[in-house]
Structures are given as C-alpha cells and as structure tokens.
C-alpha cells in the first residue's frame, strides 16, 4: 500500500516522475485551498455586517473570523471545552454516533483507515526521501516490511467502511434517491484508491486474492506500474482533489464543529 | 468590457457561515427532522440539506475556482426568487442544527441569507414585509396606539412604579392574547412579588424583524433593543421576567448582539422564576387541577436558549396534575409551526405543522396541551380547531393553554380573556 512499494533503484526515472506528480498534487491542493479560503473570506467578520465596498475575499479574514468565533463566549448558553470537542466530536465523531451507530461505524472505519494509511504512506515517503541523502539505521525495504501488517489491517478497515457506504447509497431507497454526483464522487475515489492499493500490493506480494491472477514474470512486470498507478491516483485523489470536492469536509467539518463549540 | 459581477453578494454572511456550507456532508439527518419539509408534503426545496447545497452552489458560481478563472456564472432572478420562498418556509425551529452531524448552525445561516436577500430586494415573504413599517410607526406590529398597551390591566392588578423585578409583557400578550398578561400579573401579585412594567414605553422586542431577515430596515432591530434596554435601565430593575418565548429569546440572544454589549439586567423566563419559588417553598397551591397535562417546548425557549426543565418542574408541582410527555420533546421537540414569520407569511404551512404537533399531543390522551409562549398557544389552538373540523378523535376535548394560566388557576385566580 505504500506509495513506493515496488519501486527499485532501476526505476529512478519513476522516482523523478513521482516527485513531479507529488509536486503537482501539492500545487493543485494549495491553489484550491487558497481559493476556498478566499471564498470563505469573502464573508463578513461578524453578525449582520456588510463587506467593505471593493474588498475581496481574504484568507486571513476567514482565519481571523473563525478564531474569534472559536474563542468567544456563546449567548445560547451551550459550548463545550475545546479539548472535549477535539477528542469526542472530531476524532471520535460523537455527533454521527448520536444519530446513527451504523453510519458512525461506517464513517469511523473510513476515517481511521484513511488517516492511518495516509500517515503511514507519509512516513514511507519520508524514509525513502531521507535514505537518498543520509544513511538510516534501516533500509526503506525493511521499513516497508514493518508497515506491511498495519497497512493490511488498516486497508481492510477502510475497505469495510467504504463498502458499507457504497451499499448504503446503492440499496437504501431514500439514500439512493437523495445522492448526487458530489456524494458519489467522494466514495468513488476513496473506493478506487483503496482497491488500487490492495491490487498494487497483491501483485507485488503474490496475495491470492489481490494479485488479480498475476504471478511470476507477469507480476514482476506489472508490479511497478501498478504501484505507480496507485501512488499517482492517491496523490491526485487524496490530496489534490480535497479542495474541489466533498473531500473538503475533512477540513471544513472539523472547523465548523470547533467554531460552533461542538454544535447545538 | 466591464468585469462581470457575481449574482449574489456576501452581506450578512460571515466567513464562518460560508465555510459551514462546505462542511455539510449531506448525511440527511436534518431532512428527517425538518417540520416544514414534512408538513409541505416533502417539498424538496424546503429540505435544509437542499438549501445548503443551493447556496453553496451559488457561492461557487460567484466566488469558486471557475469564477476566479473565467468569471462568475450568472444565477437567474427566478432561481433567487425560488430560493427566497424556500428559505422563508422555515420556522427557525432549529432542529436541523441540533441534529446536524457537522455541527452547522443552520438557523443562523437561514437568518443571514434572509437578510442578505432582503438587502438585494428579494423578499421577505408576503405580509412579513409589513413588520418593520408597523413597528416603526406604532412600536408594535399590531397597529395599536401606545396607550392600548395598558388596556389589558384589570383594576385589581397592582403594578409598582419602581421595583427590582420588571415584567416585559410583549406585544402579543398585551395587545392580543391578554389572558396571558393578566394571568402573569395576577400570579405575581398573589405571590407577593412586587414588579413594575414599562407600560407605554415598552416597544416590540424586534424578534419578528430579526427572524424574517429585516433587522436592518430603518435600523429597527437595534433601535427597539436600545429603547427597551434604556427604558428598563431607567426603572432600576435588575431582573426582567418574560412569559413570551419570542421576546425572551430576542432579549437574551438578540439584544446583546444588536447593541454589542452585555445587558445590565438578568433575563428570566417566568417558568424559571416560578420553579425557583417552588423550590424555596414560597408557593402555596390552592386548587387541584385533576388533569393530565402534556407540554410543548417552544423552540425559542427550549432549543434556542436551553430552558427545558423549569416548565416541567412547575407543571409537575401543581396539585392534581398528571404530567405526560409527548413524542419528540426537549431538544428534539417538534416545532408548532408558528415561528420565523411562517404564521404571518405562509399560514397554511403553519397550520399543517401545528396539526402534526397536536396529533403528538392527542396520542398521549392528555386533557391539556400546554406551552409557554403565546405564539405556540395560538397556533396549537388553530391546529386543534382544524383537526376538530376534520373530526379527528380527541381533538374536540383537547384544551390548549399556557402554563402560567394553569398556574393561576391552581392558585385559585380567575383568568378570563383571549
Ligand atoms: C476529521 C473529521 C471528519 C469529520 C468530522 C467527518 C464527518 C463526516 C460526516 C458527518 C459524514 C456524513 C456521514 C453520514 O452520512 O452519516 C461524512 C461522510 C464521509 N466522510 Fe467524513 N469526516 C471526517 C474526516 C473524513 C476523512 C479523513 C475521510 C477520508 C476519506 C472521510 C470520508 C468520508 C466519506 C467517504 C463520507 C461519505 C459517506 C457517504 O457518502 O455515505 N471523512 N464525514
Ligand atoms: S429551522 Fe426548522 S423549519 Fe427551518 S429548516 Fe431547520 S428544521 Fe426546517
Ligand atoms: S444534518 Fe448537517 S451535515 Fe447533514 S445534511 Fe443536514 S446540514 Fe448537511
Ligand atoms: S416578538 Fe415579542 S414584543 Fe415583538 S411582536 Fe412579538 S410578542 Fe411583541
């Protein structure tokens, strides 16, 4: 599942390509985030105000307004301590649990799986990068071995969540009818990224389910491009795509919950 | 060529609110709970999730990536007009915010969008546009002269010139549902609580304009808040009592916000005040009511400011009251349908919601459906009458009454009037 799984020294050209793709993904992400922050920052700084004539959306204005709301007292008489909100409402997602344990299980597995894989992929990336410049007490290949089992576990956790989400949208009538492209695209890309990760890994390690029937020379030949494919779409779909899709909720939802002090 | 301007602007919408639009995960919880969406026969446009989606799309068309690169996409006048109708088909009941998995403060978004559109000349809805004009001219929305505010006061009621406690009656209780004002005053007299009132100096609390997106017209919301606060300050009162949930919410949440400062007095709902007296053993009941009573939480008393227990405590203490709960109470209360200008703007919708709520009450087989707000009472009564006309079982026997009137009865006081 790691981005660089299957890449060898003989594939230096691929490494350069990866760097370029990562860079492009970051640029697309940052550009989109700036536009979003400016879009939000086109709003006013407080109740019933109007934007100044000729003033444009500003990311700084958004951040300031958000911070002011996070720190000010609420007149409605509710409001929980920030630490409680961070742990229970954002990491544990208590607001989903209160509404539906099934959907909470679905989302929590997606969330935990995705975040952990994201973090581990980031670590793998960091190790491969550092290895090129300084000597580490272990090799990237060894590190990949260490991550193999947790990668598998969290991959399956993520897969379970995504499959529940897809099934829910496909088979529950009212959910299906209310689903729009915006919804489908998010689960769709998470699904593709997850499955491509399993396949890339399966071809390389010869997993009987995920090698999709490849073994021996074919597997040797297809493992690097499969890994490359997974890495590229992960970077594009998981990073670059965030500001342009429903993915934005992984940034906006925690910010909204914090701004509203845990919500009503 | 002049650069194309976006079709919408961001007046009244805070940077955080615009971000909240992007935090909606379309989980659909709000749709399940919205009372006006249900009562409208599930009109798609009324669903909170749909309103968020549409305004987010409007924002993206005006300020999103594509707009940045190629200029804003136009939003047609008809689309904005339709949106206006939908955003006013909302009682500001707040349940969508309570259940929102993303913690979005939806109600304030609706109110901000209403004001944003009114500033553009779109909306409010129907008769709602009269509110600021009327209040500006008469200081109340009922076309009544200032001295009419005193007409409800019976000879036996004693109102002090100055006192530590002030009763803010509200236009509706003083000019329309005077039974509520009479009951409140007599109860306070009977309990030996010295209180004063603003009389002719009392102005509308501003709620109707704020909820319908018109607080800025003639600067009305700020002006009435300032006037009332100054007038209360001048009496020297430190505790202000309310028997109207609309006025209570406006005073507690909207006045400080309009004025940009904390109020120099305490804002207390009459049920909180009475619950306190009961706890101190200062209420001696005279009469047993011998009725089964259920209680409808007014949105603007419950969800908006969190007063749930006091009214139940008071009712539970009245001798001979068998207190029964309906389906959907406290923070999950189902709205009566009157709030947010819906009663004035879209009366049919208000009635539809009320019928559903009355059906909740009928299911408990209670004798009395009580509430703590004149607007709820009026609309629940209308809902009961309407069900009665449809021969719904039990609707003919159901009595709708405010808690304070029931308290007055249990104290052996006579209360007549509307
Ligand atoms: C950090 C805090 C996060 C919060 C508070 C949050 C919140 C939510 C909520 C409330 C929903 C709606 C769930 C429902 O339908 O009941 C949702 C949907 C979803 N979230 Fe998150 N989310 C977070 C992070 C993430 C992350 C990191 C991912 C990773 C991919 C993710 C992926 C998804 C997906 C795929 C859905 C759609 C499910 C569906 O369409 O049925 N979320 N999120
Ligand atoms: S505030 Fe109440 S009526 Fe308005 S959209 Fe939300 S749930 Fe519906
Ligand atoms: S409850 Fe909140 S997050 Fe869910 S659909 Fe409604 S507004 Fe969106
Ligand atoms: S909100 Fe209160 S003061 Fe204003 S009209 Fe209504 S009852 Fe009267």
SSE diagram, text form:
The complex is a heterodimer of chains A (264) and B (418).
Chain A (H helix, E strand, L loop, with lengths): L11 H29 L18 H13 L10 H10 L2 H6 L1 H33 L6 H32 L1 H6 L2 H25 L10 H25 L8 H11 L5
Helix pairs in contact in A: 1-2, 1-9, 3-10, 5-6, 6-8, 8-9
Chain B lengths: L14 H9 L5 H5 L1 H5 L8 H16 L1 H6 L6 H12 L6 H5 L6 H14 L10 H9 L26 E4 L2 H6 L1 H13 L4 E2 L10 H5 L8 H16 L3 E4 L2 H15 L6 E4 H10 L11 E5 L13 H9 L3 E3 L18 H4 L1 H16 L5 E4 L2 H16 L9 E4 H8 L8
Parallel strand pairs in B: 1-2, 1-3, 3-4, 5-6, 5-7, 7-8
Helix pairs in contact in B: 6-8, 11-20, 13-14, 15-16, 18-19
The complex binds protoporphyrin IX containing FE (HEM) and iron/sulfur cluster (3 copies).
Q: What labels describe this entry?
A:
heterodimer; A: 264 residues; mainly alpha; Fumarate Reductase Cytochrome B subunit; 10 helices; 72% helix; globular; B: 418 residues; alpha/beta; Fumarate Reductase Iron-sulfur Protein, Chain B, domain 2; Rossmann fold; four-stranded parallel beta sheet; 20 helices; binds protoporphyrin IX containing FE; binds iron/sulfur cluster
Description of the molecule:
The complex is a heterodimer of chains A (264) and B (418). Chain A is an all-alpha fold and 264 residues long. Chain A has a single domain (9-40, 73-259), classed as Up-down Bundle (Fumarate Reductase Cytochrome B subunit), CATH 1.20.950. Chain A contains 10 helices and no strands. Chain A has helices at 12-40, 59-71, 82-91, 94-99, 101-133, 140-171, 173-178, 181-205, 216-240, 249-259. In chain A, helix 5 (101-133) packs antiparallel against helix 6 and helix 6 (140-171) runs antiparallel to helix 8 (181-205). Chain A is globular, with a radius of gyration of 21 Å. The two termini of chain A are 40 Å apart. Chain B folds into 3 domains: 15-123, Orthogonal Bundle (Fumarate Reductase Iron-sulfur Protein, Chain B, domain 2); 127-276, 3-Layer(aba) Sandwich (Rossmann fold), CATH 3.40.50; 285-410, Rossmann fold, CATH 3.40.50. Chain B has helices at 15-23, 29-33, 35-39, 48-63, 65-70, 77-88, 95-99, 106-119, 130-138, 171-176, 178-190, 207-211, 220-235, 245-259, 270-279, 309-317, 342-345, 347-362, 374-389, 403-410, and strands at residues 165-168, 195-196, 239-242, 266-269, 291-295, 321-323, 368-371, 399-402. In chain B, strands 2-1-3-4 form a 4-stranded parallel sheet, sandwiched between helices. In chain B, strands 6-5-7-8 form a 4-stranded parallel sheet, with helices on both faces. Chain B is globular and about 75 Å long. Classes of the chains: A mainly alpha (264), B alpha/beta (418). Chains A and B meet through helix 1, helix 2, helix 4, helix 7 and helix 10 of A and helix 1, helix 4, helix 7 and helix 14 of B. Protoporphyrin IX containing FE sits between chains A (90, 93, 96, 103, 107, 110-111, 114-115, 165, 168-169, 183, 186-187, 190, 249-250, 253-254) and B (25, 27, 101-102).
């Amino acid at each position: 599942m790691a981005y660089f799984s299957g890449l060898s020294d003989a594939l230096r050209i691929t490494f350069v390509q990866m760097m370029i793709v990562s860079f492009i993904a970051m640029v697309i992400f940052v550009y989109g985030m700036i536009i979003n922050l400016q879009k939000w920052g086109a709003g006013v700084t407080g109740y019933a105000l109007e934007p100044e004539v000729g003033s444009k959306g500003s990311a700084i204005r958004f951040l300031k307004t958000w911070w002011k709301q996070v720190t000010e007292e609420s007149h409605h008489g509710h409001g929980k301590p920030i630490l409680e909100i961070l742990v229970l409402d954002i990491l544990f997602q208590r607001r989903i649990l209160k509404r539906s344990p099934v959907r909470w299980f679905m989302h929590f597995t997606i969330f935990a799986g995705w975040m952990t894989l994201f973090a581990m992929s980031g670590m793998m990336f960091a190790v491969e990068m550092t290895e090129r410049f300084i000597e580490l007490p272990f090799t990237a290949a060894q590190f990949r071995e260490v991550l193999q089992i947790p990668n598998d576990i969290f991959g399956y956790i993520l897969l379970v969540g995504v499959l529940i989400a897809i099934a829910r949208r496909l088979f529950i009538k009212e959910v299906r009818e209310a689903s729009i492209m915006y919804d489908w695209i998010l689960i769709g890309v998470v699904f593709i990224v997850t499955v491509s990760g399993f396949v890339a890994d399966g071809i390389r390690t010869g997993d009987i389910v995920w090698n999709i029937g490849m073994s021996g020379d074919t597997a040797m030949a297809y493992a690097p491009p499969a890994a490359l494919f997974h890495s590229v779409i992960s970077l594009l779909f998981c990073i670059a795509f965030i500001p342009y899709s429903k993915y934005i909720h992984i940034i906006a939802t925690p910010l909204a919950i914090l701004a509203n002090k845990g919500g009503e | 060529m002049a650069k194309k301007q976006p079709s919408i602007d961001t007046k009244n919408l805070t940077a955080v609110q615009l971000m909240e639009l992007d935090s909606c995960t379309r989980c659909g919880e709000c749709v399940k709970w919205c009372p006006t969406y249900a009562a409208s026969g599930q009109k798609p446009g009324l669903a909170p999730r749909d309103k968020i989606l549409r305004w987010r799309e409007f924002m993206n068309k005006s300020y999103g990536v594509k707009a940045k690169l190629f200029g804003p996409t136009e939003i047609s006048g008809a689309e904005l007009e339709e949106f206006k109708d939908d955003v006013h088909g909302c009682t500001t009941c707040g349940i969508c915010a309570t259940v929102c998995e993303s913690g979005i403060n939806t109600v304030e978004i609706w109110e901000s969008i209403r004001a944003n559109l009114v500033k553009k000349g779109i909306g409010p809805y129907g008769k709602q546009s009269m509110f600021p004009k009327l209040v500006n001219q008469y200081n109340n929305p009922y076309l009544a002269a200032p001295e009419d505010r005193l007409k409800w006061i019976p000879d036996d009621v004693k109102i002090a010139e100055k006192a530590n406690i002030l009763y803010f009656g509200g236009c509706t209780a003083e000019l329309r549902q005077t039974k509520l004002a009479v009951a409140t005053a007599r109860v306070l007299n009977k309990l030996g609580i010295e209180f004063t009132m603003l009389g002719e100096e009392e102005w509308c609390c501003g709620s109707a304009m704020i909820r319908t997106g018109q607080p800025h017209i003639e600067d009305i919301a700020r002006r009435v808040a300032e006037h009332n606060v100054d007038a209360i300050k001048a009496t020297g009162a430190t505790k202000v009592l309310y028997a109207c949930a609309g006025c209570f919410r406006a005073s507690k949440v909207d006045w400080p916000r309009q004025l940009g400062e904390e109020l120099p007095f305490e804002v207390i709902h009459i049920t909180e005040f009475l619950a306190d007296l009961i706890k101190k053993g200062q209420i001696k009941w005279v009469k047993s009511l011998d009725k089964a009573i259920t209680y409808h939480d007014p949105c603007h008393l419950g969800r908006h400011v969190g007063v749930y227990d006091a009214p139940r405590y008071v009712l539970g203490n009245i001798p001979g009251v068998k207190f029964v709960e309906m389906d959907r109470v406290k923070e999950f209360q189902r709205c009566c349908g009157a709030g947010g200008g819906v009663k004035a703007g879209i009366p049919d919708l208000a009635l539809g919601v009320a019928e559903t709520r009355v059906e909740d009450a009928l299911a408990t087989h209670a004798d009395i459906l009580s509430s703590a707000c004149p607007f709820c009472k009026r609309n629940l009564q209308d809902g009961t009458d309407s069900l009665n006309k449809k021969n719904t079982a039990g609707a003919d026997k159901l009595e709708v009454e405010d808690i304070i009137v029931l308290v007055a009865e249990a104290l052996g006081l006579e209360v007549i009037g509307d």
